[in-house]
Amino acid sequence: LLSDEAIEMISMVGKNQMEILKEGKNKFSIYVHIPFCPSICKYCSFKTLVNKNNELIKNYVKFLIKEIKAFSNKKERPHSIYIGGGTPSAIGKENLKLILEVLKESFLEPYEFTVECGRPETIDDEILRTLKDFGVNRISINPQTMNDETLKNIGRNHTSQDIIKAYELTKNYNFIVNMDLIIGLPFESHEMIINSLNKVLELKPQNITIHTLALKRGSELMKEEFFEKNLNITFDEIGKIMLKNFYKPYYMYRQKRILMDGQNIGWTLGGFPSIYNVVMIEEKESILGFGMCASSKF
């Protein structure tokens, strides 16, 4: 029941993630959740808090540190550590430093260390220098769209130009960078989607993850009963553009209530796939989850 294009895509994903899955045998990874953001996006259903209450952030970090210390393991080297959210960089350099310090004290150096810095307004030299000092080698800068009107509509406080400036700043620190885009955001035309894709491709980040909008219970879009009926764009079209620009697909998954029977695909340029994304989606190794909303898998 699959098209030839879909079969080819799945085969490429399987081939491109095989090395990570072989390496991940009998290893474990770590996920740390930071539930703070500069604002709440309309498509988001996480229990996220706007980062205006500094006392609340400090208390959260205090109990998170206590939890991490309780599961300290200096015998086995983690395959990957992933600090996600929310927007981890939104809690500020000092709070983030405390979390990075306790991870360093409690675990051996991971093969891969990722921190999401999704919003460009949270990225500056101090944050980037702190991440580098603690061995972080991957970060996310997530525009979701490069169309300013859409950014405003979905509740973001930045422009596409802010994204480009933040990306340029990270070049001084030699991080592997992932950038997320979402297909199916409200009132985005075919032309707007292609415009976003081309603008991100011009930057040439090592990873681009292309999500299809999923209507999540508890999100503003779900409450508004937003359903985009016809986007006039196909995943084969997007796939051809990515392959033409030398990106390779390396992980894929679907979510409930995803638009147009779509999928989410991670693409890598130059052979920099994310270990954490592959092992988490494929459920091939144990994951220790720390913090609110985090899950552990054994």
Description:
The chain is globular, with a radius of gyration of 19 Å. It contains ten helices and eleven strands. The mean pLDDT is 93. The protein is 38% helix and 19% strand. Helix 7 (190-203) links the parallel strand 7 and strand 8. The protein has 298 residues and is of the alpha/beta class. The strands form two sheets. It has a nine-stranded mixed β-sheet with strand order 9-10-8-7-6-5-4-1-11, sandwiched between helices. A two-stranded parallel sheet has the order 2-3.
Q: Secondary-structure element order, as H and E?
A: HEEEHEHEHEHHEHEHHEEHE
Runs in which pLDDT lies below 50 for 5 or more consecutive residues are none
Largest sheet: 9 strands, mixed
Beginning-to-end CA distance, first to last residue: 34 Å
Average pLDDT score: 93
User: Quick one: how many beta strands?
Assistant: 11
Number of separate helices: 10
Helicity, as a percent range: 25-40%
Shape: globular
Tell me the β content: 15-25%
Strand order, main sheet: write it out: 9-10-8-7-6-5-4-1-11
What structural category arises from helix and sheet content?
alpha/beta
